[in-house]
């Protein structure tokens, strides 16, 4: 019996590879297994190799598995591209239709099953994916009935007959593969799972759900990979809450519309990726200068320019922190799991209103699109705080004739009372031009300095529950401190375990608040480590530079950089760390 | 009772004496009072340029945004609070150069708001460069031998983009301009009012006198029907766009807000943000 296995389905984009993975993993999720998914896909609608790799485990997993146990192949390319990942006792099940060939140096066993033929015999070749799932059941010694519920939901709109036909396809796949597998039948049986019902979601789902829970009622966005799912979720859910989504003409309109909505008192946001964020930079400056709350989600993908639009990267970091002209207060959060993405998104809306400044929720493609198990989210933890928003016009003193409300009053903490259009005694002006306490343009040197200082000192008080997650830093003195952000958490955690098993003392810190940088949280850990290894998906070591700027200790910082478009595997972190030590 | 004086503040505009924008400011103040607005329920969102300063010269909520982006920001304001009256405003550079994309999309989106362009056919604040509204041959600092690009025709463009309220005014005719803004504010949908607002410093061609000589008032055109799009287009083409008055209005087309699925009849800004616990738990279950 195994505690975990890694399963992959591959074929041509557009032939249902993703939905095959989806149906397989939904059933595994309901049995209570922990899952972590990875999608390999290209920027095209049809054609080109695509695959969906899913790790299934009896314990929590947060990284793509190094190796592969079961490969479901719908074409020869899938075998040729992926066989090198196979464990020696692994099994490739392939459709007889393309006359699969097992490469000479492949140790895994090839089992040829007539997926298409069986499916056609039952009515339509479209069901070949179900035959493949049935074949998987035979390898895992899994009763195929576990798919009944998932199929009923997936095909309910197509009617009971379709559900029945698909179940027959699964059964036929199971029976045929059982015979062909011989002694390998049940070779990858998993130990029973805990049966706990968990959510199975991509990071973008968690961000979108977090936005709804935080009280968002308006979103303006422009479609882009890998952010569009966030907009699509809100388009589905906001009508029931009275809200709306506008698909704008571009990302500049998206960001400025969100600013306008926040200015008028609604929690509104936008979500995009690198190219969109580049277009939003001037708007982000406007939000900072005019002290309007603004939340923007950046789902990082391969850059620069159009770059690798469907591949993993973390190269927007510096742009998110420094990418607007002039100095503004800004907060940048970086969740590392879907669960954190949910809670951080809620925090982002609270922080944006508390500090009246732009807040960026930084994600990366693997977090945004990789599906993972999430413990049921906790309603009680959803708190909404609106900072110094004046929520009752009665609180406002009557304005003197011809006078404006002091929307930008210089205060000790830098945050001023915020009023909304429609409030009788709150009339004031808002401008991206330097302005006085009432918002009127002012070029006075003294005023400039006071207003700039006021805006910038707002960041002195930014706190986050876990600005740096140091749960895995157990050693007082360590040989190595592994540091990362966003989706690399799982790979770093597993590398840490393996390095520890090899006799090294390894701590791990994952940065959740990238700006303002939590120097005081990270510095003590760095002091107590021989070497600090910063793992990140970019070519220039942006996080490492940020740490050097804020914490110092440059001589002990080593960069572990990967920018080939694929997420770190635990084995890569382990190996590269060993090389550096 | 609210009068136009209630929409005045004590800020002295930094416009040149004689600038056409003073009339636009006065017309907005008068029209706002005439249609019964109160200062706190009016939001004026403006772009960048001399004209962009207008949001600071009216006693109302005002947002002076960034170059070319007044329209999307103003649409966000209106989406958040449908009870507010929202006016976006800016110059011809703002609306027809850097922000042209937003202009066309705002026209076709048809959110219930008013957009007033102060069109002086020149870049004034940057001291005299060509604008997309400058006529071919127009000599400026950036076109010393005369502009070689044809001018944009905003009114024709608005008609072909699905505009439901298309009008044009002139700074010298405060009465007509005030009336057009009133009609725009009362229109259920997106109203575009382009105003010939002469730059007395940098535009020595399109002067007050030049406009007086060349403009045709539609109210004086016999049998002009502002509900006939085809005739509106023909009239614009015949007079090279040099007309004032209500050019076209579609009173049948519902505004964007009326068409959005589920959109709350109350302002979104008045909603309770806390989700119902059962609803939240249902959303969570969808991922199980």
From TrEMBL, chain A:
GO terms for molecular function: oxidoreductase activity, acting on the aldehyde or oxo group of donors. It holds the Pfam family POR. GO terms for biological process: response to oxidative stress. The keyword Oxidoreductase applies. It comes from the Bacteria. Residues 210-450 form the Pyruvate flavodoxin/ferredoxin oxidoreductase pyrimidine binding domain. Residues 478-571 form the Pyruvate:ferredoxin oxidoreductase core domain. Keywords: Oxidoreductase. InterPro entries: 2-oxoacid/accept_OxRdtase_asu, PFOR_II, Pyruvate:ferred/Flavod_OxRd, Pyrv/ketoisovalerate_OxRed_cat, Pyrv_Fd/Flavodoxin_OxRdtase_N, Pyrv_flavodox_OxRed_cen, THDP-binding, Transketo_C/PFOR_II. The keyword Transcription does not apply. Residues 14-174 form the Pyruvate/ketoisovalerate oxidoreductase catalytic domain. NCBIfam families: OAFO_sf. This is 2-oxoacid:acceptor oxidoreductase subunit alpha. The lineage of its organism: Bacteria, Bacillati, Bacillota, Bacilli, Bacillales.
TrEMBL record, chain B:
It holds the Pfam family TPP_enzyme_C. It comes from the Bacteria. SUPFAM superfamilies: Thiamin diphosphate-binding fold (THDP-binding). GO terms for molecular function: iron-sulfur cluster binding; metal ion binding; oxidoreductase activity, acting on the aldehyde or oxo group of donors, iron-sulfur protein as acceptor; thiamine pyrophosphate binding. Its cofactor is thiamine diphosphate; Mg(2+); [4Fe-4S] cluster. Residues 48-195 form the Thiamine pyrophosphate enzyme TPP-binding domain. This is 2-oxoacid:ferredoxin oxidoreductase subunit beta. It comes from Jeotgalibacillus salarius.
């Amino acid at each position: 019996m195994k505690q975990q296995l890694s399963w992959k389905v591959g074929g041509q984009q557009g032939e249902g590879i993703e939905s095959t993975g989806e149906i397989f993993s939904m059933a595994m999720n309901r049995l209570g297994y922990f899952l972590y998914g990875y999608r390999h896909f290209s920027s095209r609608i049809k054609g080109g190799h695509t695959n969906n790799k899913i790790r299934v485990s009896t314990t929590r997993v947060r990284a793509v598995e190094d190796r592969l146990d079961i490969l479901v192949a719908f074409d020869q390319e899938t075998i040729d591209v992926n066989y090198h990942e196979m464990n020696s006792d692994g099994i490739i099940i392939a459709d007889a239709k393309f006359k699969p060939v097992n490469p000479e140096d492949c140790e895994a066993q090839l089992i040829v099953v007539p997926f298409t033929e069986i499916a056609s015999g039952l009515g339509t070749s479209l069901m070949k994916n179900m035959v493949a799932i049935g074949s998987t059941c035979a390898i895992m010694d899994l009763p195929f009935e576990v798919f009944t519920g998932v199929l009923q939901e997936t095909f309910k709109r197509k009617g009971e007959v379709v559900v029945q036909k698909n179940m027959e396809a699964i059964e036929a796949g199971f029976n045929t593969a059982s015979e062909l597998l011989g002694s390998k039948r049940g070779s990858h049986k998993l130990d029973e799972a805990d049966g706990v019902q968990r959510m199975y979601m991509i990071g973008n789902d968690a961000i979108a759900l977090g936005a709804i829970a935080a009280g968002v009622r308006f979103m303006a966005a422009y479609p882009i990979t890998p952010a569009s799912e966030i907009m699509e979720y809100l388009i589905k859910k906001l009508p029931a809450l009275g809200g709306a989504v506008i698909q704008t003409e571009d990302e500049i309109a998206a960001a400025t519309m969100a600013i306008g909505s926040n200015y008028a008192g609604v929690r509104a946001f936008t979500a995009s990726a690198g190219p969109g964020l580049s277009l939003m930079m001037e708007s982000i400056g406007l939000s900072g200068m005019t002290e309007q709350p603004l939340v923007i989600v950046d789902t990082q993908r391969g850059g620069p320019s159009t770059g690798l639009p469907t591949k993993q990267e973390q190269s927007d970091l510096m742009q998110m922190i420094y990418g607007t002209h002039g100095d503004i207060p800004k907060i940048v959060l970086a969740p590392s799991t879907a669960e954190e993405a949910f809670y951080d998104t809620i925090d982002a809306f609270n922080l944006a209103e508390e500090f009246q400044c732009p807040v960026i929720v930084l994600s990366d493609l693997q977090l945004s699109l990789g599906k993972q198990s999430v413990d049921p989210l906790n309603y009680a933890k959803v708190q909404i705080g609106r900072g110094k928003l004046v929520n009752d016009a009665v609180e406002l003193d009557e304005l003197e004739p011809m006078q404006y409300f002091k929307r930008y009053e210089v205060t000790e903490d830098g945050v001023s009372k915020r009023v909304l259009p429609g409030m009788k005694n709150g009339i004031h002006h808002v401008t991206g031009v330097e302005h006085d306490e009432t918002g009127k343009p002012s070029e006075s040197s003294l005023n400039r300095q006071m207003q700039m200082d006021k805006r910038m000192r707002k960041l002195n008080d930014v706190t986050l529950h876990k600005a740096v997650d140091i749960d895995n830093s157990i050693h007082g003195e360590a040989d190595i401190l592994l540091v990362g952000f966003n989706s690399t958490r799982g790979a770093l955690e597993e590398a840490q375990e393996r390095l520890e098993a090899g006799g090294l003392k390894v701590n791990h810190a994952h940065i959740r608040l990238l700006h303002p940088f939590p120097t005081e949280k990270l510095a003590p850990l760095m002091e107590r480590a021989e070497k600090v290894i910063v793992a990140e998906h970019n070519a220039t070591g942006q996080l490492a530079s940020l740490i050097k700027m804020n914490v110092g200790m440059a001589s002990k910082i080593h960069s572990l950089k990967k920018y080939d478009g694929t997420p770190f595997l635990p084995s890569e972190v382990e190996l590269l760390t060993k090389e550096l030590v | 009772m609210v009068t136009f004086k209630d929409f005045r503040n004590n800020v002295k505009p930094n416009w040149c004496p004689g600038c056409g924008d003073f009339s636009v400011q006065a017309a907005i103040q008068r029209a706002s009072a005439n249609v019964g607005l109160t200062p706190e329920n009016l939001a004026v969102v403006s772009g960048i340029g001399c004209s962009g300063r207008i949001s600071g010269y009216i006693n109302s909520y005002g947002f002076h945004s960034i170059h070319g982006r007044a329209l999307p920001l103003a649409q966000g304001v209106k989406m958040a609070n449908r009870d507010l009256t929202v006016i976006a405003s800016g110059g011809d550079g703002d609306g027809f150069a850097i922000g042209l994309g937003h202009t066309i999309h705002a026209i076709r989106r048809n959110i219930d708001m008013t957009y007033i362009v102060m069109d002086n056919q020149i870049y004034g604040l940057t001291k005299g460069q060509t604008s997309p509204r400058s006529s071919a041959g127009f000599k400026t600092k950036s076109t010393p031998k005369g502009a070689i690009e044809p001018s944009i025709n905003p009114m024709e463009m608005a008609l072909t983009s699905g505009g439901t309220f298309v009008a044009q005014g002139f700074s010298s005719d405060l009465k007509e301009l005030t009336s057009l803004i009133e009609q725009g504010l009362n229109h259920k949908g997106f109203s575009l009012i382009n105003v010939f607002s002469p730059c007395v410093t940098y535009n020595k061609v399109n002067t007050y006198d030049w406009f007086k000589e060349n403009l045709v008032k539609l109210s004086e055109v016999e049998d002009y029907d502002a509900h006939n799009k085809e005739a509106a287009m023909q009239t614009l083409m015949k007079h090279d766009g040099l007309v004032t008055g209500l050019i076209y209005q579609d009173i049948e087309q519902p505004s964007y807000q009326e068409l959005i699925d589920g959109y709350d009849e109350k302002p979104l800004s008045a909603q309770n943000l806390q989700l119902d616990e059962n609803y939240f738990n249902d959303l969570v279950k969808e991922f199980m």
